[in-house]
Amino acid sequence: MRPRCLLLRTLLPLSLGLGAAGVAADLTPWAGAPGAQPLLPWRFAGLPAQTLPRTRYSLVESDGALSLRIEARASYGNLLHPTDSMPGQLQWQWRVERFAASTDLRTQAGDDTAVKVCALFDHALERVPFVERQLLRLARSRSGEDLPAATLCYVWDTGLAAGTWIDNAYSRRVRYLVLRGGETAPTPWRQESRDLAADFLRAFGDEATEAPRLRAIAVGAYTDNTGSQALAFVRGLQHRPGGSE
Questions:
Q1: Domain extents in the chain
Q2: Nearest CA to 26 among 80, 79, 84?
């Protein structure tokens, strides 16, 4: 697969709809009927004319609150919320009922995860290294989408230790921080709270000295590379904008 095709595979599911009018100022809580996908502005984002099975997102009631059920069966796709705000504190709870099998985030063949929470940043193209910048321009031209230049994903992984930072195997425009590792399913609920600006600078500090605005928040699970199955839940996803907002 050619480099720009790899970029499209990685970044298109993180960009569809970002150019649409009426972008929310900040993160809207999940709303909708149990069993259904959350209401707009949350939307499924996959590949154009996707032939792979779609990762399934549905609302369920858990301990009196709505949780997002994320089921992957050799599937692909994110649930994405466009936004326009300064990066601040991102909080959520998550648990894993079933981990994807044979994953290895260091390789393309193993680049699958049972659950991830991602922040997409309005990173300036001129700050991207030259070769990657040219590839990104080609991919943007080919797709007709304003593909994000910097995405940070928090993942729960079984093969890497918590605290591991790693580039996505398909594109350095996506970088991972492993928040949880070494646990077996089913896991208990775990609480997370992250400073998005500080984490952006840790991930992309080689390209920027301050964090740009947020373009979107996404949750997701992929198991198409390993052909495996995974099941996870996320609840209480909240963002408190930083800066002067």
A1: 3-240
A2: 84
